[in-house]
Amino acid sequence: MSQKWNSLPHTTQVGIGAGIGGAALIAICAFIFFCIRQRRAGRKERALEEAEWEKNNAERMAYRSAMEKQYQQQRGMPLTSGAAGGRPGGRNSWIFGGQKGFQRF
After folding, report:
1. Domain membership flag for residue 28
2. Is 61 contained in some domain?
3. I need a labelling partner for 92 at 20 to 30 A (CA). Which of 6, 15, 47, 66 fits?
4. Total-model pTM
5. How far is CA 27 from CA 10, 22, 36, 44, 92, in A?
């Protein structure tokens, strides 16, 4: 095989090398183009998903606060602005080890 390669004129050898290099360059450019295109499409999809998540989260929080207000009005409890909102789960709650004899760590 090397004898046949060496028997070719120098310009033919350069032409073959340039053809292989050009094909490789085109393949690399196509790969980069498709990667960039996919990344842009993913970025758009992520933005749409984040907007939908924010919308759903805002609806959920509005529903939660409305239900909490309704619950407190039904029970005759004053509205609290504490972190737990009058529900179990405050710092001294049994959930966080507020009971005697219970240690979390």
Report:
1. yes
2. yes
3. 66
4. 0.48
5. 26, 9, 14, 26, 64
Extended strands (E) in 31-85:
none
Question: DSSP secondary-structure letter at 89?
Answer: -
Q: Spell out the per-residue pLDDT of the chain, length 105, in tens.
A: 888 888 889 999 999 999 999 999 999 999 999 999 999 999 999 999 999 999 999 999 999 999 998 888 888 765 555 555 555 555 555 555 555 555 555
Give the span between the Cα atoms of 50 and 94, in whole angstroms.
35
Give the C-alpha separation, 86 to 81, whole Å. Answer: 9
How far is the first Cα of the chain from the last one, in angstroms, to the nearest whole number?
74
Q: Is residue 96 part of a domain?
A: no
Give residue 41's domain range: 9-77
In a domain, 44, yes or no: yes
